[in-house]
Amino acid sequence: MPDEPVTRSASQQAGPLLDRPPTAPSGQRLAQRLDAARERAFVGREHEQRVLAEALAGGPDAPRVVHVHGPGGIGKSTLLRRFVARARAAGRPVVELDARSVGPSAAALEDTGARALVDPRCVLVVDSLEHGPWLEAWLRERFLPRLPDDVLVVLAGRTPPDVEWRVDPGWAGAVTALALGPLGPGTSAALLTAAGLDEAGHGAVLGFAGGNPLVLSLAAAVVRGAESQPQEWRPSGDVLAMLLARLVGEVPSPAHRRALEVSAQAYTTTEDLLRATLPDEDAHALFAWLRGLPFVEAVPHGLHPHDAVREALAEDLRWRDPEAFGAVRDRLTQALLRRLRAVDERAAISVVGELLFPFRPDGDPSWQREGEVRSGPLTEADVPAVLRLAATAEGPESAAIAAHWVAREPQAFRVYRWPGSDEPVAFSARLHLDAPRTDDLAVDPVVAAAWEHVATTGGLRPGEHVAVTRFAVHPERYQQPSAVMSLVLWETVADISRSTGLAHCFCVYRDAETWGPVCRYWDLADVGARPVVGADAYALYVHDWRHVPFAPWIELIMSPLPERDAVERPRPEPRPVLARADFDAAVRDALRGWRRRDALASTPLLRTRLVPPGATDPQAALRAVLHATLGALRADEAGRRGYDAVSALHLAGAPTQESAARRLGVPFSTFRRHLALGVRRLCDALWELEVHGLQHVTGDAHTPVPASGDRGSRPDRESRPNR
Engineered SS bond to 367: which of 240, 304, 336, 360, CB 3.0-4.6 Å? Predict the structure, then answer.
C-alpha cells in the first residue's frame, strides 16, 4: 500500500497534529518514563490521529463516535493508548473499558461507565470489541443514547462496525469508521528504526512482517538482541513461532516453559489454573514470571497473551512437539472440567466458555461469552410472558404445550431478560424425565417421539433419565445465532456436565436444514422422526451419553477440522450399555477370575464407566475400582461381614466356599448368607458408579467417587413458582 506520511515523536518532528506532553523532567515517575518511550517509538497513523484530534476538539461536525477496526496486532490498542494520553493532557476525564474483562452481563459496563452518563466532558474508550460480540449492539441501542451530547466515544475491535450504524439515520452521521491497515514500507522502516534496529537489518524483517506493527516490533526485538544483525533473514512457514521462541529466549527452567505453553492455550491464565495444570511446580513463582513478560497483559480475570503471540506460541508447540501440545490441552481440559464440577451453576457458564476455547475451530464465531442477556429461573409472574413468547414464535399449539410443562416441570425453565428490564424476551426449557407419562405423551408429540426413540434403543436402566431441551424460544431471532442461543448452549453444556444418570439428551429444532449440520458437529444424531406441532414439523436430535460420556465428547466435538461438514471425525469406540442383570453377571465373573492375570481381559466391564476414558492400563484401573468399592463396604457391620466373605473367597483365593467359611470361622450357611450380601452390595455400589459416572483422581490409582453436581442439588432447579 502507498506510504502514509511518517509521524515521529516530538523530539523527531515538529508541528504535531495532537498537542504532545512535554518531556518528563528529572525525577520523573516510572509511568512517565514508559510513556516517553512509547512516544518515541510511535510512528505513522497520520489520518487516524487527525480524525481523533478533530473529534477531541469537538464542534458541530465532529464525530460523536469513532470506530477503529483492524486485524490483531495492527496497532489499535497502541493508537488508543496514545489518544487517551492526549485526551487526559487536554484535561478530559477518560473512562476505559476492555471487552475481554466483560462477564456474563452488562452490569459491569453500567458501573464502569457511570461517570460518562453524568459528565459531558468524559471520553469513553472501549477496546477489544471482538471479545464481546453482543457489546456493540448493547452500546448502540441501550447505553450510548443515554450519554450527554458532548461525550466522545472511541470504540476499537477487529471487525468493521456493523451495518446498523450506517442504516440508522440517527447514527449514520454521528459515527466515523477508521480502518487500520498494514503500515507502508517507509513507515514500517521508521518503526524499526525507532525500535533500535539498524537500517542494515530492515530488509528481511520488512519482507516478513508485512506491515503488521506487532510483528515488526517483535521481530525488531529479536534481531536487535542477536549478537550480530543478519543481512539476510529467510523465515519459513513457521517463522512467527520461531520468532517468538527467539524473543522469549532461554526460559529459566522447563517449568517456566510449561507455564508459557499453558498460557498460550488458556483463555486467561490464573495462579490456580497453573497450580491445577502444573501440580508439581511453584504456581506462584510461575505466575509472577508470566506477569512480567512483555507480551502478556494483566486483565481483571488473569493473564492474557497478545493474540498474535498466543497463536504463535501455540502453533510453535504444535509444530515442534505435537505430543506435548496435546498433553497441555488435556491437562487444561481436565483442570477446567474439575472447576466446572466444583463451581455453582452461575459460574459454570463462564467455565464452559473457557473449557471450549482451546478447541474452537479457527474463525468459529460460536465461542463467545453469553452476552448482555440475564438468565434466571421461572417465576409465577413470568408465566404469561413465556406463553406469549411461545405463541409468537411457534404458534398457539406450542404455547399450550409450554403451559403443560410449566405446570408439570416449572424448574426446567430459564427466562432471559435484557439488563435493566424485568420483561422476559426469551425462554428455554430443559426437561429431565425418568419415565414416560400418559399425559405427557398425549400433550407433546415431540416428547412422545423422544420416548419412542428411547424405547427402540433398549429403554432406560434403573437410575437413568433423559434430558430434552424442549424449548429455546427467542422470537426476535428465533433459532438463529444470538446472545440468547449462545447462553442456552453454555447452560445446556454446563447442565450436562454436572448431571448424573443421564442416558439420552435430545435437542429440538424447527429448521432441520440449518441446524442438521450443526447438530452433527455436536455429535447429535438425527432421530428421523418429525413430530408436528400446529403447522410445523420439528426435527429431533439425540446423543447417548452412555456410549460417549462427557469428557470424550468434549474432545470429539472440539477437535479442529479443515472442513467441518465434509470430514468424518474419528469417534470414540462406543461403550456397551449393559442391562442390570448382565452388569451383575459381569461383576460376579470378574470376582471368580480375580486371581488370574488375564481374567479381566475380555470382561464387558472394561468398556463401562467403571474405567476412565483413556486409561493407560484399563485392567489395572478396573481392578482398582473393584477393590476400592469392595473396601468401602466395611463402613458398617453388615457390610464388613459381606466384605470378609467376598475377600476370603475371591481375593484371598480360597478353593471352595467351605474352605473360605472355615478360614473365617463361621458356619457354612452363615458364610453363604454373608457372601450373597457382599456380592449384592458390591453390585449395587458399582451400578451406582456405572449409572452416575466416576471422578477419577489423577495418578496411577483411580478412586471411585460418584460424580458431583446432581441435577437435583441446585437451588434454582428445585424452586417452583408459588401457585
Answer: 360
